[in-house]
Amino acid sequence: xxxxxxxxxxxxxxxxxxxxxxxxxxxxxxxxxxxxxxxxxxxxxxxxxxxxxxxxxxxxxxxxxxxxxxxxxxxxxxxxxxxxxxxxxxxxxxxxxxxxxxxxxxxxxxxxxxxxxxxxxxxxxxxxxxxxxxxxxxxxxxxxxxxxxxxxxxxxxxxxxxxxxxxxxxxxxxxxxxxxxxxxxxxxxxxxxxxxxxxxxxxxxxxxxxxxxxxxxxxxxxxxxxxxxxxxxxxxxxxxxxxxxxxxxxxxxxxxxxxxxxxxxxxxxxxxxxxxxxxxxxxxxxxxxxxxxxxxxxxxxxxxxxxxxxxxxxxxxxxxxxxxxxxxxxxxxxxxxxxxxxxxxxxxxxxxxxxxxxxxxxxxxxxxxxxxxxxxxxxxxxxxxxxxxxxxxxxxxxxxxxxxxxxxxxxxxxxxxxxxxxxxxxxxxxxxxxxxxxxxxxxxxxxxxxxxxxxxxxxxxxxxxxxxxxxxx
Length: 473
Fold this sequence. Notes:
The protein is of the alpha/beta class and 473 residues long. Helices cover 38% and strands 21% of the residues. The protein is built from 17 helices and 16 strands. The strands form four sheets. It has a six-stranded mixed sheet with strand order 4-7-8-9-10-13, with helices on both faces. Strands 11-12-14-15-16 form a five-stranded mixed sheet. A hairpin with a 5-residue loop joins strand 2 and strand 3 (84-88). The longest helix has 22 residues, at 131-152. The radius of gyration is 26 Å and the shape is elongated.
């Protein structure tokens, strides 16, 4: 009967119904910020009395009270601070379908992107209860904060939850020795597109309460492996890369103990992801680090590629450096010259990704390859690529022709150096430790170089590109 009364609802009430439909459950504070993201404080989700005790906030409470009386919304939970969590009733859901012009027909499916909403019966719409509600709430807090960051840093943000992100696929069951039907179900998926540089950042997202045991994490990443293997059949890597996310973003509640949580997630990822490690980056962060993590990926070319290129130029021009050909000083715009060496196109295609390299000549029969990989905060792509290249470089024709004998990873980051590498618990720990026997850290923002133990190199005395000549095997 409420569908016939939609014309009586105020615009604010209609917006509340629409937001509750999209997010499935919200607090009054979250509704307030989602209705006007410009009001989201930088401290969100931590709010002071002054930030929420406003006439507009009191108006939201009043609107919700009226919707409760109409039977459109219901209270599904109370947080520890007595904050109430609201959701649509079954009648409220029917009203939302009417407001959004969504046919209430079983099987009316849409992608969920760009406000293309599909039909879900009430059993699939209503928010989870009890323990799972905290997991659901973390996802909402994440999305509200992303709305703020999108305004603050001028990018577009779009998100779908697990109802839209879930996909059915088939995979070989080793025990049953036959193909079985499975469901790939991440917690959600989001896309960021910068309005400044056009950079697109596409992620599957997992909301981590820090309670999943290693065996559950192992199974989760194994399913990612199985799903990627399934959808990649008959598809080349560039086509695959343009159609699905290239990152799993683990948003964890861990704060002080995020390092230990990262280790547990990381070792299970490395042990199960198989050949997809160089394609699918694993990124772990919490709400406190979210802004820096997002910016490091949105601005990756400016922060890493261009600045790294600039930092390398003086090292290559060092008269004591005998390595790759130095950039010509006669060029009219030398800043456009790349400091890197590159593989041939067919070699990049065979490898599946493009490495950034410099070459240090030891003698005519011995070259050291410095491999530059991004390792900002807690992520795996750079580690996986360093391992992948170290295992394959001796079979790459251009590397054989220059007598490349060893690969030295340079882990590049911006401002905050990650913890040292630790492969404890990884199935191939001995092999990985050998690959990372020699490596350097490089803070691209401050042009600081450090050894593997975090000791800064004096650039007035040491050229990092010749640092390992005395350690020749």
